[in-house]
Known about the structure:
Layout: H1 2-22, E1 41-42, E2 45-46, E3 53-54, E4 63-67, H2 73-77, H3 79-89, E5 94-99, H4 104-117, E6 127-129, H5 134-137, E7 145-149, E8 155-159, H6 164-171, H7 207-212, E9 215-221, E10 231-232, E11 235-236, E12 244-251, H8 253-261, E13 280-283, E14 294-300, H9 306-321, E15 324-339, E16 354-357, E17 361-365, H10 378-388, H11 390-395, E18 399-401, E19 411-414, H12 420-431, E20 433-448
Amino acid sequence: MKKQLSLKIIFIMCMVNFSFAQLVDNGYEPLKVGDTVPDITLTNLIHYPKKNVKLSDFKGKPVILDFWTSGCASCIESWPKMVSLQEKFKEKAQIILINNYWDKSKVKPFIEKRMKLLELNMSILPVVCGDTILKKIFPHQTVPHIIWISSEGVVRAVTTSIDEENLKALVNGRNITIPQKKDSAKIRDFNRFNEQKPLFIQGNGEEQLADRLIAQSVLTKAVPGTIDGYSVYPFRARRLKKGEIITVINAPLEGLYLFANKNNASTYCINRTLIRPGRVVLEINDSIKPEPGYNYQLTVDKLTPIKELQEKMRLDLKKYFGFQAQWQKRYKKCLVFSIADTLRISYNGSKKAMFIMDDVNFKVSGTQSLFPGHTFTMPDIIDWMETMIPYYADLGYPILDETGLKGPVSLEVETNVSNYKALDKALKKKYGMRLTLEEREVEVLVIGD
């Protein structure tokens, strides 16, 4: 009887420990690097033999959880790399894609379209559709959000990207050297900065200081793991009754000078590429090695036109770096939109408002719902391509409009948008429009000694 009672107690204690590792008050606890991942069940899978699978089924090999959304261009552009890595590591590691927002009915056709148009075998990557559990365990505000789990089930890293060298290190039990992402469930915490307060002062700034602040500028090196890419936040300072704050986060030297010298600086711009392709030329001494990125903030205690703020910023940059910047005409290779018959794509007001531009959709028609009365024009299309589609930013060619279209347009093609030759072919076939690589004289910002 005593032996039977002991076995029952041991069994109950094991169940308690097991349950605690998975649940806290029937809720999931957020995990951090170094924590052990509970043996949760991944549900609503596609590209996998089972509809549901436990994480323990992958025991003995590392697991990569890649959170993505349909609106994240860099997430989707990373899929060919993910496929390549899965093919290379085969049974040594498992990459799993996670979508928190869509069920199978939306995820499946979305991926199948890209498999066809991009000629990509996504079937080797399991996809969790409509996840509700993992997002509680790994809360985040931005994607890409990539979780690195060791073969022992321990969280080893949280990043925004993945590469072969670090995946190999994870497989072999070595340390991961890729920069860690700083993210959280709190929207104000996700980039480790509060852009409405002075940076790095008394825990980012106190209200007592704000009452006495007249002007301040701060320049620092970029902080690894904050917002990926370039983000700009110039706007009315809510904590100052009459004030302005410009914040530039994780921008290279060229990005700082470009914003300080832009002729049409936006009053609000977040998570957009600051540097337009091919628009900045750096002509400085080879011995000078700028940092990969910088954070800059300028605060003034009165409402000030952006032009004046830019002048103050230029003086700061001159003082800190010693470089001058000026706009010049230079001949460069450019991607040029052109068309023989403009009537084929002119918007006549009959179509429903639409703006869908991602890796395989190039669809524009109607008016912008966020800004009633604002119609979609060629400059809108080019602005989106240069700032929101990583392929064109990386390609480095300025995009020019030589169509002669002055008003709204209607375009609708499905192709590999992240390939200008494929886009050119699709636009030519349907509308007679071209997107070709040409030599043109364009205005560029030249930064020099």
